[in-house]
Recover the amino acids of this structure.
């Protein structure tokens, strides 16, 4: 049923409005008017105070005065757009000049109302603005249920993810290993029009080149030794849905060319086949590598980078969202207890404090492992601090991932040959069986400077 009325019965009773005005009496009056209609209202007497409220939670709408000291309504709007793009802002002013209104609306302000504000016009504009938010429109938030957070930075990223999900543009998710890049990719898929189609993920760094090519594009019977039948690749398996390419920075150059062609032509050609197959796939990729440096080193194609990086979502390390650690730990311990030890109820206060203050170099993946270890080893309903400390030490001594182990070996090996040759790159490259260009690329990747290994160099710079 569609109604054009704006009675209180039609107001969303749960909508949260942040009201900003440096005139305290008007702030109180307008706040009472909004609350009488059923809105939940938070008030701020300045733009700076309003931003502090945004750090603790995301409202559904901001209603701000234009003329305020220090930070006016437009400046506040611009900062809100930086932090929470898509959050609707309505600006009120007693100086309702046309230039102000034009400037505000061109920058993306949802509405511009003059004081004294007409009651019906105010509620009408608020209703229209709230229709663009999940709280008022009844939008299902299940798309993001796998991502547990109270971090303002993560909320900003999720808002961007929700907005980009509605289009088919390629998304590059960056961030350190274990920060949840695949979870974010899955959330984007769930929020998109492709949600009822497949979401398929593959790690580009986990397979040798020929096997990765076959997995992505498929192959025909007899295409290579062992190809005893036709094989449908992941592009075809994900048709209509989303293909997530994790660790895209590790994809070999030859495959990068084939991937670029597939994205440009929206067609793939299986190995050993002469026929092309049309595919309709939304591509999301991820990497923990610096692709800018990889392009500079000739290890990643610039044209492919710009094709993949239409929108970049950068996930922060867990240590930068410490407020999420207790929340995640509580969720994870409940899940682990259900699987293994139902009597486990949670962590002690001291244990939570230790978890929240840890550095988490392995990010959320490391936290998952620590919680699993604690649940496996505890004999009491409340996990004590000592058990958390033990699990953290065990994690630090745990076997590294294959990629981390390979990187560690490479760096140790390069340091060793540079020491042997006293920083002579030509000799070191010869020992390593690599040409000078490739050897220099390896040195750059591991941030090693040959000159520091020469006689009389400052040994404090060596790794």
């Amino acid at each position: 049923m569609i109604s054009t009325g704006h009675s209180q019965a039609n107001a969303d009773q749960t909508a949260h409005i942040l009201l900003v005005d440096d005139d305290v009496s008007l702030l109180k009056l307008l706040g009472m008017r909004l609350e009488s209609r059923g809105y939940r209202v938070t008030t701020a007497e300045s733009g700076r105070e309003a931003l502090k409220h945004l750090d603790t939670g995301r409202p559904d709408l901001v209603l701000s005065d234009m003329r305020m000291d220090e930070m006016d309504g437009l400046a506040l709007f611009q900062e809100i757009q930086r932090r929470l793009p898509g959050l609707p802002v309505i600006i009120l002013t007693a100086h309702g000049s046309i230039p102000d209104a034009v400037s505000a609306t061109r920058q993306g302000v949802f509405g511009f109302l003059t004081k004294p504000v007409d009651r019906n016009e105010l509620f009408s504009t608020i209703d229209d603005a709230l229709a663009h938010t999940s709280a008022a429109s009844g939008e299902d938030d299940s798309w993001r249920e796998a991502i547990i957070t109270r971090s303002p930075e993560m909320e900003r990223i999720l808002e961007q993810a929700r907005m980009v999900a509605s289009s088919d543009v390629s998304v590059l998710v960056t961030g350190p290993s274990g920060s949840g890049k695949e979870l974010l990719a899955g959330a984007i898929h769930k929020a998109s029009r492709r949600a009822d189609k497949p979401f398929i993920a593959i790690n580009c760094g986990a397979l040798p080149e020929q096997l990765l090519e076959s997995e992505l594009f498929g192959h025909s019977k007899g295409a290579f030794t062992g190809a005893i039948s036709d094989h449908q690749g992941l592009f075809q398996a994900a048709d209509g849905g989303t293909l997530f390419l994790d660790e895209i920075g590790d994809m070999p150059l030859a495959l990068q060319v084939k991937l670029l062609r597939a994205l440009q032509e929206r067609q793939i050609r299986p190995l050993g086949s002469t026929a092309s197959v049309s595919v309709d796939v939304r591509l999301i990729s991820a990497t923990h590598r610096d692709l800018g440096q990889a392009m500079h080193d000739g290890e990643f194609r610039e044209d492919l980078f710009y094709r993949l990086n239409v929108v970049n979502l950068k996930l922060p390390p867990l240590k930068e969202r410490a407020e999420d650690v207790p929340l995640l730990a509580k969720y994870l311990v409940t899940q682990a207890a259900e699987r293994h030890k139902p009597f486990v109820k949670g962590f002690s206060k001291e244990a939570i404090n230790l978890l929240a203050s840890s550095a988490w170099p392995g990010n959320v993946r490391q936290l998952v492992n620590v919680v699993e270890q604690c649940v496996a080893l505890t004999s009491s309903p409340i996990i004590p601090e000592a058990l958390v400390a033990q699990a953290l030490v065990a994690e630090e001594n745990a076997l590294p991932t294959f990629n981390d182990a390979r990187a560690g070996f490479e760096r140790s090996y390069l340091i060793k040959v540079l020491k042997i040759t006293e920083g002579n790159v030509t000799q070191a490259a010869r020992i390593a069986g690599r040409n000078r260009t490739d050897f220099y690329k390896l040195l750059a990747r591991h941030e090693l400077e040959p000159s520091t290994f020469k006689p009389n160099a400052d040994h404090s710079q060596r790794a």
